[in-house]
Specification:
Radius of gyration of chain A: 23 Å
Structural class of chain C: mainly alpha
Strand content of chain A: 15-25%
CATH class of the largest domain in chain A: Alpha Beta
Distance between the termini of chain C: 47 Å
Order of helices and strands of chain C: HHHHEEHHHHHHHH
Largest sheet of chain A: 7 strands, mixed
Chains: A alpha/beta (408), B mainly alpha (364), C mainly alpha (297)
Number of strands of chain A: 13
Number of helices of chain A: 14
Shape of chain C: globular
Number of domains of chain A: 2
Oligomer: heterotrimer
CATH architecture of the largest domain in chain A: 3-Layer(aba) Sandwich
Order of helices and strands of chain A: HEHEHEHEEHEHEHEHEHEHHHHEEEH
Number of domains of chain C: 1
Structural class of chain A: alpha/beta
Largest sheet of chain C: 2 strands, antiparallel
């Protein structure tokens, strides 16, 4: 009996010794970051892979010692798309002493804007709402805003449409998230963009869009630009397909071409609408795994390394998460290289200098990430993708919107 | 009446007046006063941090809202599935002023007690309006009426440009005699404000229950036809109850607006209405102290589950699904288990504990 | 004019799906006077089970649809047995709250599966081309949905009118004490009511899932969406659910078709049912076909 006790004691002691060694090896500095997002609840289909992307990339950074002995500790917390919880998480993170904060939804970013200003903490949200940047200095959008995406799409239509003025309808989410770009697009049209906005449709929970599609058709609408989430778009393009209204190629005469901004597309759309997604045009600044690229390979390798399933590995929201983590890591790395201390203000300064020769070439996006005092939208170029044979394929080269500058 | 006003092992009331007293014994009063002092003093003694102060403030606001909900659902027996919308009405009353006059308008930042009171009254008006169908409806149908108010509220806020389409409308920092309340003392400051209001509201409820109206409420809940026969007006009583609930909710909403320094529609959705109901149930419907237990229990549960979920996430890193599923699962289980095994809520445990100490050292 | 008739047709199609979703509420309410808030989750569950069987197990969709009906039937029956049986005789708020708790539990369980945060769609099994006639069109999915809806509703009406169990269910809804005294097992009737409601929810889930694709947010929201339908029809009338479903479908389509985009209005299809609901509650609280309880407060 006594022997057993001794044995147990010895095992325990050895654990203690090993543990104390393990902690003493990591002598480097720990940079605290944090992310609060909706892993469950509304929009969790986007939030879930996003969280995985952020988590995996920071683990990758620590495992491969990208920052030398220093490590990044990023707390990820579920807020269920509930702004009050986001605020609580944020206060908690501040108490923990984070140097950079990653946020998620449009609503919470807008709600916490004042706190970001007061705390002077750089923030990278997953919402590309243009309104995030109004009256704020510390929010950095990862890629071009929704407005820029929609105007970019409209410009593409204006350029490539054959025969007269293109007639466009907008299909939007019934909230500020959906309505934001409408205003900007109207301004762009006033500034001379050669399209006509025939109708703005706010969707509800529609089971059937036949009547709406027929109405658009009778008004000779040829392009529907969507700014919402995947599910309503899926219902609509399914109906359009079964009615035979959906164009087989861009701008097919007498048919309707469907196009959408970042959160309307991706594999989720194909998953929801199946074959009806064919010829859906989508714009984002991220590289997709359906196209061969260094970034896509790295992404798949990362997902494999940390045991993610195919669905997460190929999600553009996973890419989104990785990219945000990359930007954060890069900023920390640059501050370190300068020999400065990694603080909120040094990170903020560093992010603001991320332009010109110092632009960050992320492999996950189609263009460089550039920030400056006046430009807080990261990747300014957009890539057009089109569903072809059940996967998104790139169309043409990355482009950037001209009118977004004119309407500012 | 027992001769000793310090110790009473049972009910020895000789007059109705005695039964109506707020504190039955001096000991009760003493303990309560001591408790109040503790509640006011602890932030000065212990070091506080913003997160927990925010949580505490939030719990206190939820308590005010649940006091109102308990009024209408617990005491009057009318199910309200739209309480968050009433809270929202209060918050948007503040937001409207901010929207029209600018978020640093002096009335908003300096006269905030008036603003809070005003929001309460606006909430009361809306509450009474939604309660109007109570003249004709009972039970479920009334519950559905409140539900439809919830949906209409959400749509209206989301749709109207005036309300910034549901996006955050900022509310400026409040001023105290010492000047602007800065970021560091913000949560502490509002802790005291909310606490004072909560205590006042608590006494208000206790006193309402001692009045004719309070007795009407309970009578109507238990048997409205009998109440009618005794000369009460059940319809009016119910509308008053809704108005009162609206008042509490409005005050809670205004406090929420000031605490978060902004109002967004996402804080007042159907989900929140359901959470308020859950708080009322877990605390104990139709009891005053239940309104305090419920919010505390639900919010603390939420925090604890969050912690557990985080640990679970560390142990099984690849299966975050498990960690995130824990929260709805535990929330649902708590409600269901309480209803199945302790339908009278935590207030019942409180009652049992109290009577234990009253009778101590005897069993009964 | 074709546009008008198209709106009517779409309204009827959407309306009958509403009717089917509303049926679940009516079945439960009719026998046990309980409002099941977790109905949306049941709809989602039905859709997910059908999908899992069809795609992951590889059973043809026609069969898997029926198997999923059966599974949900058993599932809801056990839900009733575990959670609700104890609450017979408790105040109505407790029972409603239990269904709210149930909603959260089901949410949690669904988040454990891939369905919680991923999107799927059913494989195509019907012709892609719509049925077109005189400028009107509807898809095959919708046609099949409408047929299933009416078949189920017909079956349920027959069941309640003619079969012994159906009659005993009606007896229980009328007077529990009296039906007990003539030898009807009230708990069994409650169980059965839940089970049939689960079945109808699964059927609705299958149909909605085919129309919108499988997204948890979208699917469970239907539980709330059909509330106005249930009230308009009267909580305890199957016929009411059908008529009200179609009326609501028409209202939504007309609101979307004629109101939206004019006078600065938008998204009226979502809120209009609730406004109508409040008006109904004020003037005709028991709905179009509900039984008038002779009782005023």
């Amino acid at each position: 009996m006594k022997k057993h006790k001794m044995l147990f004691f010895r095992i325990l002691m050895s654990f203690v010794v090993v543990l104390s060694f393990a902690t003493s090896i990591q002598a480097g500095e720990v940079y605290k970051l944090a992310l609060s997002l909706a892993i469950t609840g509304p929009t969790s289909d986007a939030g879930n892979p996003y969280a995985k992307g952020v988590e995996d990339y920071f683990r990758f950074v620590n495992d491969t010692k990208l920052l030398g002995n220093d490590t990044i500790e990023c707390t990820i917390r579920d807020d269920q798309y509930n702004n009050d919880v986001t605020k609580r998480n944020f206060e908690d993170f501040l108490d923990q002493g984070i140097v950079l904060y990653l946020n998620y939804s449009t609503g919470s970013t807008m709600g916490l804007k004042r706190d970001f200003e007061e705390e002077k903490i750089p923030v990278i949200p997953a919402s590309f709402h243009a309104g995030n940047l109004i009256d704020s200095n510390y929010i950095f959008l990862p890629i071009a805003s929704y407005s820029e995406q929609i105007i970019g799409l409209a410009e593409y239509v204006a350029k490539n449409h054959k025969g007269g003025k293109a007639k466009i309808a907008l299909f939007i989410h019934p909230s500020a998230f959906g309505r934001g770009p409408v205003e900007d697009l109207t301004k762009a049209v006033k500034a001379g963009l050669n399209i006509e906005i025939v109708e703005v449709v706010e969707h509800g929970q529609d089971l059937d869009n036949t009547a709406m599609l027929k109405r658009l058709k009778s008004k000779e609408v040829q392009y529907v630009l969507c700014q919402t989430v995947q599910s309503p778009v899926a219902t609509m393009i399914k109906d359009a397909n079964s009615l035979g209204y959906a164009a087989k190629s861009f701008g097919e005469a007498g048919k309707i071409t469907f196009m959408g901004a970042h959160y309307t597309g991706g594999n989720d759309l194909i998953a929801l609408s199946g074959a009806a997604a064919e010829n859906f045009f989508w714009t984002t600044s991220y590289r997709l795994t359906s196209e061969k690229s260094a970034g896509a390979d790295a992404q798949l390798a990362l997902a494999k390394k940390y045991g993610r399933d195919d669905k997460a590995a190929n999600s553009h929201n996973y890419t989104n998460g990785i990219m945000v983590a990359q930007v954060a890591t890069e900023a920390i790395k640059r501050v370190k290289e300068k020999g400065e201390k990694v603080t909120r203000s040094s990170l903020y300064e560093e992010l603001n200098q991320m332009n010109g020769a110092k632009a960050f070439q992320a492999d996950t996006t189609v263009g460089p990430v550039t920030y400056s005092k006046t430009d807080h939208a990261g990747v300014d170029v957009l890539q057009l993708y089109r569903v072809d044979g059940g996967v998104f394929r790139s169309v043409g080269v990355p482009f950037s919107s001209e009118y977004i500058k004119k309407i500012k | 009446m027992s001769a000793n006003r310090w110790l009473a092992t049972g009910n020895y009331f000789a007059t109705y007046k005695e039964e109506q007293r707020i504190f039955f014994t001096h000991t009760d009063r003493l303990i309560f006063s001591f408790f109040l002092v503790c509640v006011f003093v602890w932030p000065l003694v212990f070091e506080t941090n913003n997160k927990y102060m925010l949580v505490v403030d939030n719990i206190l606001i939820a308590m005010i809202a649940v006091l109102g909900l308990n009024m209408v659902t617990g005491f009057a027996g009318l199910i309200s599935i739209g309480h968050a919308a009433f809270v929202g009405v209060g918050a948007y009353a503040v937001a409207s002023v901010s929207r029209v006059m600018g978020n640093d308008y002096i009335f908003l930042t300096h006269a905030w007690p008036l603003m809070i009171l005003l929001s309460g009254f606006i909430g009361a008006v809306f509450g009474a309006m939604v309660g109007l169908p109570a003249f004709r409806l009972k039970h479920l149908y009334l519950a559905i009426a409140t539900l439809s108010f919830q949906m209409i509220f959400q749509w209206a806020i989301n749709f109207m440009e005036f309300f910034n389409q549901g996006q955050t409308i900022y509310v400026g920092r409040a001023f105290w005699f010492t000047g602007e309340v800065g970021r560091n003392e913000h949560y502490i400051f509002w802790y005291y404000v909310i606490l004072v209001i909560l205590v006042l509201m608590g006494f208000m409820v206790r006193n309402i229950l001692r009045t004719r109206f309070g007795r009407c409420l309970i009578a109507v809940r238990d048997n409205d036809r009998a109440a009618d026969a005794m000369g009460m007006h059940p319809g009016l009583t119910k509308v008053y109850a809704f108005g009162l609930a609206g008042f509490f909710a409005g005050v809670a909403g205004a406090l929420h607006a000031y605490l978060y320094r902004g109002v967004g529609v996402e804080s007042f959705t159907l989900h929140h209405s359901i959470t308020y109901l859950a708080m009322a149930i877990v605390g104990g419907l139709g009891t005053l102290n239940g309104s305090f237990w419920g919010p505390m229990a639900i919010k603390i549960l939420e925090l604890q589950v969050e912690k557990i979920a985080e640990h679970a996430g560390e142990i099984f890193p690849a299966s975050t699904n498990l960690a995130t599923a824990l929260r709805p699962l535990s929330f649902g289980l708590v409600i269901v288990l309480f209803l199945m095994f302790e339908p009278r809520g935590i207030a019942n445990w409180w009652r049992i504990t109290r009577s234990y100490f009253k009778l101590w050292p005897f069993r009964y | 004019m074709t546009y008008f008739f198209q709106l009517v047709l779409s309204g009827i199609v959407v309306g009958s799906i509403y009717a089917l979703s509303a049926l679940g509420f009516v079945l439960i309410y009719k026998s046990s006077r309980v409002l099941n808030i977790a109905h949306g989750q049941l709809i989602a569950t039905g859709a997910f089970i059908t999908y899992a069987l069809t795609v992951w197990v590889g059973i043809p969709i026609y069969i898997s649809f029926f198997i999923s009906l059966l599974i949900t039937f058993i599932l809801t029956m056990s839900v009733e047995r575990i959670f609700l049986r104890r609450l017979i005789g408790e105040p109505i708020i407790s029972v409603i709250m239990v269904t709210i708790g149930l909603m959260s539990i089901l949410d949690g369980l669904i988040y454990l599966t891939p369905f919680g945060s991923e999107n799927f769609s059913f494989p195509l099994f019907l012709p892609k081309e719509p049925i077109s006639m005189a400028g009107l069109s509807m898809s095959w999915t919708q046609l099949v949905g409408v047929i299933i809806t009416f078949a189920l509703i017909g079956a349920f009406s027959w069941f309640f009118k003619k079969s012994t169990i159906g009659i005993s269910m009606r007896a229980v809804s009328d007077d529990q004490l009296a039906s007990m005294s003539i030898g009807i097992s009230v708990p069994r009737v409650f169980g059965l009511a839940w089970a049939t409601a689960g079945l109808s929810a699964a059927a609705a889930g299958g149909i909605i899932g085919n129309t919108t694709g499988l997204n948890f947010d979208t699917l469970h929201a239907f539980g709330i969406t059909v509330f106005p339908v249930v009230i308009l029809g009267g909580l305890d009338s199957i016929l009411g659910a059908v008529v009200a479903g179609i009326i609501m479908g028409l209202i939504q389509q007309f609101a979307g078709g004629y109101l939206d985009g004019n006078w600065g209005l938008n998204g009226t299809g979502v809120v209009l049912p609730y406004i109508i609901l409040l008006i109904i509650l004020l003037f005709k609280p028991h709905g179009l076909f509900g039984i008038h309880e002779i009782e005023r407060v």
